[in-house]
Amino acid sequence: MVERVYLKHIAQHVGSEVEIRGWLFNKRSSGKIQFLIIRDGTEMIQGVVVKSEVSPEVFEAAKRLTQESSLIVRGVVREEPRSLSGFELTVTDLEIVQLAEEYPITPKEHGVEYLLDRRHLWLRSRRQHAIMLVRNELIKATRKFFDERDFVLIDAPILTPASVEGTTTLFETDYFDDKAYLSQTGQLYMEAAAMAFGKVYCFGPTFRAEKSKTRRHLMEFWMVEPEMAFYSNDDNMKLQEEYVSYMVQHVLENCSKELEILERDTSKLKNVVPPFPRISYDEAVEILQKHGSDIKWGEDLGGGDETIIASQFDRPVFVHGYPTEVKAFYFKPHPERPEIVLGSDLLAPEGYGEIIGGGERIADLELLEQRLEEHKLPREPYEWYLDLRRYGSVPHSGFGLGLERTVSWICGLAHLREASPFPRLLNRIYP
Ligand code: NSS
């Protein structure tokens, strides 16, 4: 009986005959020998088919194989330091599962729209494969980090009655005789959960109808949102720097091969250790003005502004104390300077900009009621949220980390679209 193995574990089978099930990635031939690059989803290996050593049927089958044909192959594993994976397979038997039609993605260059139209196939390429594995590791690291710190995972709903992050980016849908919105954030529900469990987080998809086309915006993205009772914004920032450093170190340890495929300069990632620098919004405005920006105090930072600020530092930087005016209704104002909030954004280096937004929440009922009014938000859908300030209200803080922005930075991508397996972009919902 030949054992079926995954290429990821091939090192344990040197000298044995094994069975691999996968796809043909690429092929070279020199008449009497065919070199098949086979992938099985976990790894790749070169299979060598020697005419004089296999049956005529097997050699013929190898010849017929087209790019991305599915196959079952048997062979003896040999160490081969010169090859990509360090191993080679001397093929003994080969069965075609399906002979693929002419594959639309070839090793030559394709335009990005062409590739996005074929995202379902593009995912098989080395680069996209590497990005998704880094994404997977970031999620694993997230779970591990919060588990180790006794956080409880609480899932937030996706269909919601209220807007949280501004009314202009809402996706609206019918909810029987009512209206509903796709969730922009799980935060309000996490605030309720934090009052029930102390330290919680959610990790799920969130939706924003962003009408501008930028390399930093998706219509659907995944967010990690911790919320902690009895946490100040300083405690909140400490948790963020620990979490972000933890993720980066985890990826450095577990994804060296992927980072190499992505040609990522890892020396820059090695700097990502606490403490992260902290600058106030006031200081940020000064820095920006010195760099020739015409930003005035009171305006939100744009993508370009974030890039300038972040490029001053070799690791992520916190900008805290944003103007109350530009921030969402739930931010707690600074006790001595009510024109700024006890909140911060975390900007990633190398031009990536904001990956986290967070802060301390208003715990006081009256102030929160006043803010809802100022923001012209209807009272009814938030009544339950106001209850949290009626029954044992406590100081509490939390934040949201955008997963795709984090993947994009850690992988060194030029655009967020590659950080999502099936990105939803302005004017694109296919495939
Ligand atoms: O709007 S945020 O700054 N903050 C919130 O939604 C809070 N309610 C989170 C919380 O405190 N629980 O978004 C948080 C992060 C932001 O830093 C980005 O990394 C990411 O979510 N984000 C996005 N990623 C991709 N595409 C879009 N459109 C996007 N918008 C925000």
Describe this protein's structure.
This protein has 431 residues and is an alpha+beta fold. It is 30% helix and 26% strand. The two termini are 41 Å apart. It has two domains: 96 residues, OB fold (Dihydrolipoamide Acetyltransferase, E2P); 301 residues, BirA Bifunctional Protein, domain 2 (2-Layer Sandwich), CATH 3.30.930.10. The strands form three sheets. An eight-stranded mixed beta sheet has the order 7-11-12-17-16-15-14-13. A five-stranded mixed beta barrel has the order 2-3-4-6-5. Strands 8-10-9 form a three-stranded antiparallel beta sheet, with no helix packed on it. It is elongated. A hairpin with a 4-residue loop joins strand 3 and strand 4. The site of 5'-O-[N-(L-asparaginyl)sulfamoyl]adenosine has 22 residues, from strand 12, strand 16, strand 17 and helix 13.
Number of helices: 13
**Radius of gyration from the alpha-carbon trace, in angstroms:** 26 Å
User: H/E order of the elements?
Assistant: EEEEHEEHHHEEEEHEEHHHEHHEEEHHEH
Percent helix among the residues? 25-40%
**Annotation, overall tally of beta strands:** 17
Q: Strand count, sense and closure of the main sheet?
A: 8 strands, mixed
Q: By CATH's scheme, which homologous superfamily of the largest domain applies?
A: Bira Bifunctional Protein, Domain 2
Q: What CATH architecture of the largest domain would you give?
A: 2-Layer Sandwich
Task: List the ligand species.
Answer: 5'-O-[N-(L-asparaginyl)sulfamoyl]adenosine
Order of strands in the sheet with the most strands?
Answer: 7-11-12-17-16-15-14-13
Question: What quaternary form is this?
Answer: single chain
Low-confidence stretches: none
